[in-house]
Amino acid sequence: MAVYTDVTESDLGAFLRDYPVGELLSYKGIAEGTENSNFLLHTGQGSFILTLYEKRVEKADLPFFLGLMDHLAGKGISCPLPVHRQDGGIIGTLAGRPAAIITFLEGMWPRRPTAAHCREVGRVLAAMHVAGADFPMTRPNALALDGWRDLWAASRERAEEVEPGLAREVDADFAVFEESWPASLPAGIIHADLFPDNVFFLGEKLSGLIDFYFACNDLLAYDLVTCLNAWCFEKDMSYNVTKGAALLAGYQSVRPLTDDEKQALPILARGSALRFMLTRLYDWLHGPDGDLVVKRDPAEYIRKMRFHRAIVSPQEYGLP
Length: 320
Ligand SMILES: Nc1ncnc2c1ncn2[C@@H]1O[C@H](COP(=O)(O)OP(=O)(O)O)[C@@H](O)[C@H]1O
Ligand SMILES: N[C@@H](CCOP(=O)(O)O)C(=O)O
Hints:
Belongs to the pseudomonas-type ThrB family. This is Homoserine kinase. Its EC number is 2.7.1.39. Pathway: Amino-acid biosynthesis; L-threonine biosynthesis; L-threonine from L-aspartate: step 4/5. Residues 27-257 form the Aminoglycoside phosphotransferase domain. The chain is of the alpha+beta class. The longest helix is centred in the last third of the chain and has 28 residues, at 259-286. 42% of the residues are buried. The chain has a 5-stranded antiparallel β-sheet, with helices on one face. Strands 6-9 form a two-stranded antiparallel sheet. A two-stranded antiparallel sheet has the order 7-8. It has 9 helices and 9 strands. It has 2 domains: 9-103, Phosphorylase Kinase, domain 1 (2-Layer Sandwich); 115-317, Aminoglycoside phosphotransferase (APH), C-terminal lobe (Aminoglycoside 3'-phosphotransferase, Chain: A, domain 2, Alpha-Beta Complex). It is 40% helix and 15% strand. It has helices spanning 9-16, 62-74, 115-131, 145-155, 166-180, 220-231, 241-252, 259-286, 298-309, and strands at residues 24-29, 37-43, 46-52, 92-94, 97-103, 187-190, 199-202, 205-209, 216-219. Adenosine-5'-diphosphate (ADP) is lined by residues 1-2, 30, 32-36, 38, 49, 80, 102, 104-105, 197-198, 210-211, 213.
C-alpha cells in the first residue's frame, strides 16, 4: 500500500510546525508500498516523504530504522535521511500513529529489471552490508523462523483457500527449516525487503535504497537470496540465470561469499520465499480491503518455494 490512515490538512499543518521544512504547499497519499501510510509533501523547502507507521512496525524499533538510514548515508549509501525537528527528535505522532518525515529521493524503481539493474543492486547490497558492519544498534529479525511460525499459525486453517495442498507443503518445509536452517554464516545488518520497488534508478544507475522498515540483524546471504527471489524471476516464474549471475557477480565484486554461504543459498532462498509467501498469505486472508491498498499475491511465492526445493546445486543460481 498504501494509505491506511488519513491525515487532515490541519493536523498535518500543526505536526509540521516543529520541522524545518517550511510552509506546507500540498500533500497527497502514495498508493505504492505495502506496509505503512506514505504521503508526498511539497513544502517551501522542497519535497519530503511523511510516513505513518502501521501494524508491522513497532514504535520502539523506529530509532533503529531511522538511525540506520543516517548511518548508511554517512557511509556513502544513498538513502533517505530522517528530518530532525527543532528539538532534535525525529519521531512524532500524527493521526494517532507514530510518524516521521524523511528526505525525498530522486529516481524511479525499475518496472522491468534488466541484468544491468541486477548487477547494480547486488553491488549496492554488498556495499550496504559492509557499511552496516559498525552500526552500533541491533534488532533481531522479527520475521525469522519464530515469526514465520506465528504467521503460519494465524493462516494455516484457511491456506487451502489460496492453494490446495498448501498446508501440507508448508508443514513439511517447517520441518526442514527446524532441522537444517544455517546457524553460523556471516551475519550483520540486512535490509530484508530489497525488492525492485525499494530501489531507485536514474537510467541504469542506482540512485538510492528506500524502505528500511524490515531492516534487522540476520545472515547476510539471506538478504542476497531475498534479492534473487525478487529480481531474477520472470513473470512466468522461470528463474533468469543471466540476471541471477549478474546480481551475484555485482554482490561478489564488493563482498565475496564464503563457501558455506554458497552451499546455503538453496535453503536460504527457500526460507526467504516462505517468509514472503507467509506475510502475503496473512494479508490476503486478514488484511483490509480498499482503493488505496494493493494486496500482493502469495501464489507468486508458492511457485518460488517450489523452484528452490528442486535446486540440486547452488551453481544453478548463476554462481561462476
Ligand atoms: N524517500 C523517498 N523518496 C521518494 N519516494 C519515496 C520515498 N520513500 C517512499 N517513497 C514512495 O513511497 C512508496 C512507498 O514507500 P515504501 O517505503 O516502500 O512503503 P511501505 O513501507 O508501505 O512498503 C515508494 O514506492 C515511493 O513511491
Ligand atoms: N516486498 C514485500 C512487501 C513489502 O512491501 P514494500 O512495498 O515495502 O516492498 C512483498 O513483496 O511481499
